[in-house]
Amino acid sequence: MLRLIIYTGKGGTGKTVSACSTAIKLAENKYRTLLISSDPAHTLTDAFAMPDLGYEPKEILTNLQALQIDPLMEMNKQYTTILSYMATLFHARGIDETLAYELAMLPGMTQLFSLLKIEEVSRTKRFDTVVLDMAASGEALRYLYFPKLVGSIGRKLTGLVGMFSGFARIFQPLSRLPTPPQNVLENELELLAKLDNLNMIMMNQDITSIRLVTNPDTFSIENAKRAFMSASLYGINVDLAIINKIMPAGSSDLYYAEWADFQRVKIEEAKANFYPLPVKEVKLYGTELRGIEMLRENGQLMFENQDPADVLFRGNVFHFAKENSLLRMTVKVPFTEKDDFDVERYSDKLTIKVKTRVGYMVNTVPLPAATTGMKLTKAKLQGDELTVLFEKIV
Fold this sequence. Notes:
By secondary structure, the chain is of the alpha/beta class. The chain has helices at residues 15-28, 43-48, 71-78, 80-92, 97-104, 109-124, 146-158, 166-171, 182-203, 218-234, 254-273, 292-303, and strands at 3-9, 33-37, 58-61, 64-68, 129-133, 208-214, 238-246, 279-283, 318-323, 326-332, 336-346, 349-356, 359-366, 374-382, 385-392. A hairpin with a 2-residue loop joins strand 11 and strand 12.
């Protein structure tokens, strides 16, 4: 069975380095490993300190291959029929042909075709593990839900035919548009089947894990918290948080000592915010972390004798349930004592203050877009689970 590990995080947190280090550790544990990056900045080339990897798997070490994804190349190689038909639809509406091709690349399509590379790998069975280094983006996790979303929309648009030719049926009352040829329909059915398979891969907790990468600072932790909530909302398992670039304690220099103290506070906050996920702490290196030997050392520091392919955590830390006009949100909170807590909403965030064995702890939880136009009506704490009810504002 394929094992898929996805690294995500704010740019600059060491996400690519963590992905490369994990891939090396997996390869040395005898897993046939493929490392994929969809980052247009070609960060894998920089991390391994080697010539451009290109768009086909290239051997890095025994059991380790890597590639940079070019989504446009992937689409042109496999779905040029669909792309051309979409462009024809827009051109038929009087749009310049060159612009029509640009519009045919619908929002998110490049990310979707990056993910389809994983589905292709799963069918070939050439690899045991795939490590995906996602492009740094606060919205990156939305694209992991695309396989389910796009497949569902496609079937609704076309009556179990396909999503792209459905546009013709929508706009036909407005003008005469070209009917999709048979090869477009066949291409769509093939794509929808791949999306179904990809969705099963993404939602299987035994196969897929997201690993959050952050630094001990407010901005990257907030980014990781939102990714954590989004993954739970989409039903994709998160099994680990990694905090990179931790400065050593005990410096005699006041400047560095204050930074180390600040980081220690942020690390403790992060552990509480990511509870009950395991959290790994990785030091700040004295030099730029690049090249196979340094990545190997970093992988050993991250995992020691642990197998990186293991699923390190299973479960939904955030759970959402719709009940008529209500939205029920359940979130795990650490180290609670009795029923002593306070909950307040500020815009798209929920502030939770709970009593712990060492005093009060404040946790800020990002809220999903579904709570827009809703008010907080009730909150109840049971053990380490806080249940919050939101109701539509009438």
